[in-house]
Design a protein that fits this description.
134 residues, mainly beta, globular, three-stranded antiparallel beta sheet
Length: 134
């Protein structure tokens, strides 16, 4: 009888405990911080606790990637600019092949909503530094 009470108690305790949930995030699968890459290389984007969706999709917990090259985060209340430093992946792509000049470069990602505006709170990756070889 004591064992049954213990099982019931533990079951109730587990049911009352909050379920751990990760915060939404974006990150680089490839390349990694500190990597040396060829001038043309593949960037693979990772995402957790959100779903990729094309630009123009306005469902909760969805967005699409923007790759920031050698630039700071954009204005977080405006659409991400569309320039050679702020690349848009509005078809919900999870990878891209890019070409950069030799030297050190910074890469960062930010997730945008259906209008390319960062979420509130914004979901962006850590900045990584890569070296492009000759």
């Amino acid at each position: 009888m004591m064992r049954l009470k213990k099982i019931i108690f533990m079951t109730l305790l587990l049911m009352a405990s909050p379920i751990y949930s990760e915060e939404p995030s974006v990150f680089f699968i490839q390349p990694s911080n500190g990597d040396t890459v060829d001038s043309t290389f593949e960037v693979i984007f990772g995402i957790k606790e959100m779903s990729l969706a094309p630009a123009g999709t306005y469902e909760d917990n969805t967005g699409h990637h923007h790759l920031i090259i050698d630039a700071p985060l954009p204005n977080l209340s405006m659409p991400v600019p569309a320039t050679k430093q702020y690349l848009h992946f509005g078809k919900a792509q999870d990878r891209v092949t890019i070409t950069l000049e030799p030297g050190k470069h910074t890469l960062q990602m930010i997730l945008g909503d259906g209008n390319h505006i960062p979420h509130k709170p914004p979901i962006y990756s850590e900045v990584i530094v890569i070296e492009v070889g000759p």
